[in-house]
Amino acid sequence: MYRRQAYLATWLILLTVAQAAALLAVYRIFVQTRTGQAVDTISLTANWIGSEQLHRPVTLVLNTMSVVSLALVTALVLFIAVYRRRYRLAVVAFVVIAGANVTTQLLKLQGLRPEYGIDPERTGNTLPSGHTTIAASVAIAFILVLPRAISAAGTLALAGWAAFAGVATLAAGWHRPSDAVAAFLVAGAWASAAGLLLVPLPPALDSDGSGSGRVAAGGAGRFGSGWAAGVLLIGGVAALVLAALLLWLTHDVINWSIEELSRTRSLVAYAGGAAGIAGTAGVVLGLIAATVPHLVPPRSHPVAEASPG
Fold first, then answer.
1. 3-state SS, residue 166
2. Cβ-count burial of 6 within 10 angstroms (0-12 exposed, 13-18 middle, 19+ buried)?
């Protein structure tokens, strides 16, 4: 038991540190360097491609995200957790949502963006994206509290929605790709850090809140959502590889003026930024989906007493 808890704690700490390091790398490369700013800006300014077709769904998704809607969704997440008697999950879900969104606002205010003359229309630091942080943290919170019967389908749907929200900030011209990528890393780091609150809990106590039951035997219920995590991880890694290739091709034209870029060149940059956002969403949420079953045991069932005779 204690060895398993030690493994889980170590994994969550490593995951938190890795995501924090990736966040710092994104900031140092795409905010602090001229080359990173140039690649990011070319991806953003190419958002005119397909803008007419994407305007309605993009606007619909982004307009649903506000302080009021975040509060309502948070209340729904807490209600689901409490209704299922997963009280500690309610605490962790709240910590993820509150911590990620507060951290994003602090980082946005404190981050310094050197002016290299790359994008004079958008001055100041915009990393991380607030809208993407809302989507990512809410998706993570729901993944934590969803019943296992719908966890796999729910995880894929939530990941798809969060990824689309991140890409939508790029399509709407609100944020550079790195802003959305950073938002997923902020939310993911908070999720893995908050997950440490679940590690030391005895499984029987966490399963029904009373400590009177036993964890259900067998692995089918416990790992039922594993295939969804695998889909997200494989798809996320593939998207990140594609993003790296497309942004490497974009690097070849960073000294060109935006007006000189052909539609093909612009599309390559735009697709690279979108793939980077979607890939980060897939990897971050996939890792969370793969870890949650180990932190949240199935609901326990009291052992039936044998009838006399």
1. helix
2. exposed
Q: Are 1 and 192 in contact (CB under 8 A)?
A: no
Rounded Cα gap, residues 94 and 119, in angstroms = 37
**How many angstroms separate the first and last alpha carbons of the chain?**
36
Q: What Cα–Cα distance (Å) separates residue 205 from each residue in 3, 201, 209, 274?
A: 18, 7, 5, 43
What pLDDT, in 10s, does the model give residues 252-302?
888 888 878 899 999 999 999 999 999 999 999 999 999 999 888 766 544
Answering whether pTM is above 0.70, one says yes
**185 backbone dihedrals φ, ψ, rounded to 5°:** -70, -35
C-alpha to C-alpha distance for 281 and 167, rounded to whole angstroms: 10
For 59-88, b where at least 16 C-beta lie within 10 A, e where not — what string? eebbeebeeeebeebbeebbebbeebebeb
DSSP letter (8 states) at residue 297: P
Tens-digit pLDDT profile for residues 155-207: 999 999 999 999 999 999 999 999 999 999 999 999 999 999 998 655 444 44
